[in-house]
């Protein structure tokens, strides 16, 4: 056994004596009650620290708590020990060493696989032919940092041995967390790292493939050893075939094959004949390049053809990723990439843009010590902790260091190689922010704009005290609706977080060129000739801005002046301008056949944007307002009896419908009330309730109900009646205040939860903004009539109004035919120059494609 010096690289550790078996047992006795064997459902984290991106590959290794099974890097394990008192940790470390050289100077081919027992990704920068890995595990007892090497079956108590074996053999914690979510998670093939590829000169053409044995042209598989193209059978995707790929494996023993037509920059369908299952190949790009295939230029479709077989989109991939130019890698703080987890580039691009904003940097990374110190016992399930972890990983520079030439001499002198980690893997962050979301929790590609709104909603719900960095995006939209028959108007305001600009295709400045291209393309397709070079529509930005400001028809408009449906038109203006303006180009739409398609256009987005002319003006002289009369609410007959006879418990509110409404920009509490008062009948019915009640003074106040029974109560609630609640029972208020909360928090929480103590406590933790409302406390304590609280006006939306002059600092681009496929890349302007963030690759941009972006981020500048 060794002392602390050996663990932390301090002198004095090498002379520690080896203790007898009895000494080890005696040392562990006080800690035995805290050592657990992982049960079914326990999440065991042994690949990543809960507070950082340290792993067993890191210099300090990783410490796994033998009670909670959370993992911590060397900088954070002491915090967990102090907070929980847990003393026994398993220390995991992977060592990387150069292979022993043979007599001829080459590395000996045999690899000591028996010394690898951790399921970790190997470093892509290391050549597996030159390096070998050795994993080490030991128990560490805090606070004295005693070490017990593993395995140690003879000396350790049986319970400890079983617990250690269970931890080391545990599967991915993300797979356990949600089996449905991770059912498509594939194992890394054991043949991928050392796959033999024959140098036989085979080059695979971009199209025209057929099976080498039977001339089939579908369900074709490329063998990654010799480049043979052969048909598959029913394994893997049930596409059919004659099984020649499998026969080839049986004849030759070449284990891996990739399905042609599925290759994209994010990966491809890879099958291992030897392992008899679909697998991941972390070196797929290198293996494909051996046969002349560049993954960055590929984009698969369901019918086995690439997009450029149908329409030449290769140029889009090249331009956006700046292919063909020698890009200089960037390192250091703020230049850290995010590794692609498989269709996670939408998340990576949004988070890179988010953490380039100072307000988000200050809110999370600036508060790192406080957030980490006060994190819950399971920090992997805390939004603010994981945001802070991600922000620190991106901004610290700790995971983005350039290779130093002077280190090469040291590596030659030493046996052990110290791998340099570049880029971080956001697996823990993605697992948390996407849980319970049917789309983001999948491994499919998603819409970056939808994820941006989802993230803003999470920031709103988990804000730190009164600080809410998403306030920088929030603005008010004034909507003016005019009844075409009576000419009367209604002005309303709503909250939004981004500006959606339509694509004004009719304003293209190169219409003649587009018509000629379309004719040439159709002729080439008919004659099976190569397609012409793509001609992209050139749209003036001013035309898109004009289309945004033009009136639009209101479907199903109900005129309060006529007390009937009528024609109506709506115009939108900015009632306030945000600190940061996010502009989305509405490039995606659906065709007549409901197939999603993308407007492949070039828009001359300005570096400086002035939208002051879109400032709202309110009711104008001579305009007459529509009467303030609500339309009748029509409840479907099949749901009316259920709704009127039984009021749902607020705890059973359909949260998915609430999230759909909240992502439209409506206040979260208003969305909950809408879903509640419409009996969980879906987002569409709840949306109608919002439209009817959005002008009421208590629209955004928390849901309050005097009781849960009776049709009269339910009916009154559905039609907007709001009874005044009495003062909550003093004995319950006293219980909450005795816990250290203010009286005003206790009263508000009890009123919002129908005097339910347990739910009131949950409400307090989810509404920290009420903590410092001193005016409310004075009003509450000095007024004998507590019902006056119900008459208080709610706080208005938090906005940071100012000038409408903006400067572009970031944009996210999309490549592909729909938001459900393709690839996202982010460009950010830092220190006066543009930088491209393409997953884990961060480089100085030479030709930023500002005209091809999907989402643009502007910050306000003084006029």
Architecture blueprint of SSEs:
Blueprint: H1 4-7, H2 21-28, E1 62-65, E2 71-72, H3 77-84, E3 88-98, E4 131-141, E5 146-149, H4 158-169, H5 173-177, E6 220-223, E7 229-231, H6 244-252, E8 256-259, E9 270-272, E10 277-279, H7 284-289, H8 307-310, H9 314-321, H10 345-354, H11 358-364, H12 368-373, H13 383-395, H14 406-413, E11 416-417, H15 427-433, H16 448-461, E12 475-483, E13 489-496, E14 499-502, H17 511-526, E15 537-539, H18 541-549, E16 552-553, E17 558-559, E18 564-565, E19 568-574, E20 580-586, E21 588-590, E22 596-598, E23 601-603, E24 608-610, H19 637-645, H20 655-662, H21 668-677, H22 683-693, H23 711-718, H24 730-737, H25 743-752, H26 757-766, H27 774-782, H28 788-791, E25 805-815, E26 823-830, E27 833-838, E28 841-844, E29 853-860
Parallel strand pairs: 14-20, 15-23
Antiparallel strand pairs: 1-2, 1-3, 3-4, 3-11, 4-5, 6-7, 6-8, 8-9, 9-10, 12-13, 12-19, 16-19, 17-18, 20-29, 21-22, 24-25, 25-26, 25-29, 26-27, 27-28
Can you put this structure into words, describing what you see?
- By secondary structure, this protein is α+β, with helices and mostly antiparallel strands.
- The chain is built from 28 helices and 29 strands.
- Helix 24 (730-737) packs across helix 25 (743-752) and helix 25 crosses helix 26 (757-766).
- The termini are far apart.
- The model is unreliable at 1-18, 107-114, 176-184, 234-239, 299-314, 638-647, 706-726 and 772-794 (pLDDT under 50).
- Zn(2+) binds at residues 211, 214, 231, 244.
């Amino acid at each position: 056994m060794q002392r602390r010096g050996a663990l932390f690289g301090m002198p004095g550790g090498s002379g520690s004596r080896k203790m007898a078996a009895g000494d080890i047992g005696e040392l562990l006795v006080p800690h035995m009650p805290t050592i657990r064997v992982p049960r079914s459902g326990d999440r065991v984290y042994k690949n990543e620290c809960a507070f950082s991106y340290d792993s067993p590959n890191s210099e300090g290794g990783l410490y796994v708590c033998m009670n909670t099974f959370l993992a911590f890097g060397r900088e954070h394990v002491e915090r967990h020990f102090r907070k929980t008192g847990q003393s026994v940790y398993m220390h995991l470390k992977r060592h990387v060493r150069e292979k022993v050289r043979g007599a001829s100077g080459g590395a000996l081919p045999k690899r000591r696989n028996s010394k690898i027992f951790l399921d970790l990704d190997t470093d892509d920068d290391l050549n597996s032919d030159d390096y070998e890995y050795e994993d080490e595990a030991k128990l560490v007892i805090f606070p004295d940092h005693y070490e017990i090497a593993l395995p140690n079956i003879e000396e350790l108590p049986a319970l400890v041995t079983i617990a250690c074996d269970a931890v080391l053999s545990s599967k991915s914690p993300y797979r356990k967390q949600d089996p449905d979510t991770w059912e498509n998670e594939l194992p890394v093939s054991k043949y991928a790292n050392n796959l033999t590829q024959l140098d036989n000169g085979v080059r695979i053409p971009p199209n025209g493939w057929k099976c080498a044995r039977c001339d089939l042209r579908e369900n074709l598989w490329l063998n990654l050893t010799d480049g043979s193209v052969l048909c598959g059978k029913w394994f893997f995707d049930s596409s059919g075939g004659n099984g020649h790929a499998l026969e080839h494996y049986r004849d030759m023993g070449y284990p891996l094959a990739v399905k042609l037509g599925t290759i994209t920059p994010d990966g491809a369908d890879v099958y291992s004949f030897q392992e008899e299952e679909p697998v991941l190949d972390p070196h797929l790009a290198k293996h494909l390049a051996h046969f002349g295939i560049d993954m960055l230029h590929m984009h698969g479709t369901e019918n086995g053809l690439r997009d450029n077989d149908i329409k030449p989109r290769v140029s889009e991939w090249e331009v956006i990723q700046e292919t063909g130019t020698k890009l200089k890698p960037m390192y250091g703080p703020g230049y850290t990439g995010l590794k692609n987890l498989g269709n996670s580039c939408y998340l990576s691009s949004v988070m890179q843009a988010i953490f380039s904003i100072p307000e988000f940097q200050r809110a999370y990374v600036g508060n790192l010590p406080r957030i980490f110190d006060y994190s819950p016992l399971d920090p992997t399930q805390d939004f603010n902790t994981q945001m802070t972890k991600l922000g620190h990983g991106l901004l610290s520079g700790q995971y983005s260091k350039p290779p130093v030439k002077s280190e090469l001499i040291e590596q030659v002198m030493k046996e052990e190689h110290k791998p340099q980690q570049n880029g971080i893997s956001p697996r823990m962050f993605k697992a948390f922010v996407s849980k319970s979301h049917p789309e983001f929790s999948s491994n499919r590609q998603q819409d970056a704009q939808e994820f941006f709104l989802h993230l803003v909603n999470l920031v709103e719900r988990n804000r730190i005290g009164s600080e809410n960095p998403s306030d920088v995006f929030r603005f008010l939209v004034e909507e003016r609706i005019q009844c075409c028959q009576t000419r009367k108007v209604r002005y309303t305001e709503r909250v939004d977080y981004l500006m959606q600009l339509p694509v004004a295709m009719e304003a293209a400045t190169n219409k003649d060129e587009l018509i000629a291209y379309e004719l040439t393309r159709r002729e080439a397709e008919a004659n099976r000739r190569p397609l012409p070079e793509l001609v992209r529509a050139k749209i003036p930005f001013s035309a898109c801005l004009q289309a945004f400001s033009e009136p639009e028809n209101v479907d199903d408009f109900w005129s309060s002046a006529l007390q009937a449906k009528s024609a109506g038109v709506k115009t939108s203006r900015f009632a306030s301008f945000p600190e940061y303006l996010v502009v989305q180009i509405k490039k995606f739409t659906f065709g007549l056949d409901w197939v999603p398609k993308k407007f492949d256009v070039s828009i001359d987005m300005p570096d400086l944007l002035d939208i002051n002319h879109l400032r709202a003006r309110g009711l104008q002289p001579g305009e007459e307002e529509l009467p303030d009369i609500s339309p009748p609410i029509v409840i479907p007959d099949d749901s009316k009896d259920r709704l009127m006879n039984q009021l749902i418990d607020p705890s059973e509110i359909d949260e998915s419908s609430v999230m759909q409404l909240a992502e439209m920009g409506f206040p979260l509490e208003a969305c909950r009330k809408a879903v509640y008062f419409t009996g969980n009948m879906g987002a569409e019915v709840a949306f109608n309730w919002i439209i009817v009640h959005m002008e009421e003074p208590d629209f955004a106040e928390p849901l309050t109900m005097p009781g849960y029974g009776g049709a009269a109560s339910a009916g009154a609630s559905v039609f907007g009646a709001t009874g005044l609640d009495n003062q909550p029972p003093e004995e319950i208020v006293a219980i909450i205040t005795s816990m250290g909360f203010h009286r005003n928090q206790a009263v508000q929480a009890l009123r919002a939860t129908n005097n339910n103590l347990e739910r009131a406590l949950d409400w307090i933790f989810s509404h920290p903004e009420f903590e410092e409302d001193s005016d409310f406390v004075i009003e509450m304590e000095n007024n004998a009539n507590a019902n006056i609280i119900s008459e208080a006006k709610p706080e208005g939306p938090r906005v940071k109004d100012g000038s409408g002059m903006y400067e572009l600092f970031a944009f996210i681009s999309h490549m592909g035919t729909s938001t459900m496929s393709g690839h996202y890349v982010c460009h950010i302007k830092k220190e006066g120059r543009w930088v491209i963030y393409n997953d884990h690759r961060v480089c100085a941009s030479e030709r930023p494609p500002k005209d091809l972006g999907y989402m643009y981020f502007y910050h306000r500048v003084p006029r």
